[in-house]
Amino acid sequence: MQTSYSYAGLHQNLNNRVAISIEIQLGFFVFRHSLQLHCFEESNPTSYFLVSKPIRPQQIAIPTQIGIRSRWIVSCLVLIHFGAIGLSYATNWRRSAIQDRVLVWLQPYLISANWYQEMLPIEWISDENASRSLQVSYQANDANGEWSSVLDTSQNTFLRARTERLLYPLVDFAASEDTQGLTNILKSFVLHLESQSTRSATKIMRIRLVRYAKPNEEEGAESVLYQASLARFPNGEFGFVPKIESHRSVHSLDAARRAP
Amino acid sequence: MIAAWTETAKWWNAIWFTPKPPESLWKVRVACGLIATSHFLALLLFGSEWIGPNGWLNVEAGRFLIGEGVDGTGSVYRWSILYGFPQALSTVVGVGLFASIATAAGLGARVSPLLTWFCMSTVHHRAPLLTTIHEPILVAMLAYLTIDPGRLTWTIRPGLASGQSRISVNIVLQLIRCHLWIWIAFSLSSMLAIPIWWNGEAGWLLIQEKRGWLHLTEGWQWLAQLLTHGVIATQAALLFCMIQPTCNWMGRWILYLFLFSVLLLLGDWMYASVLFAASLAVWPVHLSHRNSLPKSQNAPNK
Lengths: 260, 302
Hints:
The structure holds two protein chains of two kinds. Helices cover 31% and strands 28% of the residues of chain A. Chain A has five helices and nine strands. Chain B has 14 helices and no strands. In chain B, helix 6 (135-145) runs antiparallel to helix 7, helix 7 packs antiparallel against helix 10 (221-242) and helix 10 packs antiparallel against helix 11 (248-265). Chains A and B meet through helix 1, helix 2, helix 3 and helix 4 of A and helix 1, helix 2, helix 3, helix 5 and helix 6 of B.
């Protein structure tokens, strides 16, 4: 049984009372507590103590040995568990059809218990990663042609990793010409920005144009990957009318960066 | 054949079913709890801006990204309550924060790591896309700690009663070890699949993007290339040292080198902290060698 207290002293006084002082340490704090115990020697030849405040063990004792059947069960569970995780992580390489089928079959366990593919080791950097620097900006109804930048993966902030993870699908959607994916994410961005302005400023901001671009440090300009104006409908909904079609104009690596 | 099988069974039993004292797990739990606390503090500050009711990634976009309604995506197993109640994010994060503090302080036995894991997984299931590099190992360690959280006192003071050795403590330690090994193995293989980790450019690109603590000018590219190769070599060496008990001291120092390179190139101190916490299951660090031993072992030999 695991205990977190130490026995400090036992004192018996004349009234058949016993005091035990107990020291409990939690971090740098030490709590001392004395317990009053009553001793009933007259009523019972075998002396016993009535504890005024019983001490509850912190953990239930677990046997130090387990049977062979339990060992088999634990061993099989361990092998299945790591087999499933290995299979999930292995999708980082290539994916075979049979692997895909097994993964789908294991989804109830892998997804529910949070071991699925989003939990696989993420590369520190990749060929595409290096050229995926992105910036989302917008123009509101009162802007004089000026773009306000909101999400920028080149900004070295605490939230850089999350910003990258949020913006990279835009590039993937653009590459695969998935307009529904693009619209869904950009819609979410626009709603967020407009709700922010509603909460903080007196004037309600209405976004007119939205775009994402790759900042080009060498030329001092941006290469716009996608730009769309917002078409608002009477029911409050809105859609995007692309002005610059989504495309993937970035190179795998800049020549300057490749130079040794 | 039978002899080989018996030997294998003995080896397997010795690895997984040797009782270990709960003291060998408490540092992992404390480290894990502290990292989870900082994780939830960050979520408390920025979480609602990202996945709150009107966050950057609202519920509708979140549902689209997990592939809701599409066969084979497994979106039905995304059990986060935040899809139905996005305004519950602050409650989930608050509960997670308290649970992680309790985990670090050794309160609540198995309940606190379980609750921390639940809150963290709730957020992950809401936006799996936004999972960052440190979270998978952290969430795995929390899941394993629910089996046995080890000694529940946060103390290095000698003289306190030592807990009875348990098999479950060893199982948790081995689970964390295996998970860390698999993680490093796949991390290494992912890197080796990309040419820039072979030709030494990866380090230079990371430095150019100013991700880590290291900032170099053009003439220092050789150092970046050396670091790139160093990252690969240290990971390979770590994998070897983790399965060789005789390489304990070497493994620990290689780990420190690797963590240092993580900070230099990636600047992700949370990732470095999580790797360090997980490595405590492999190479325990004695805060005070004399104090960490039970009284009987501290006594001088007569």
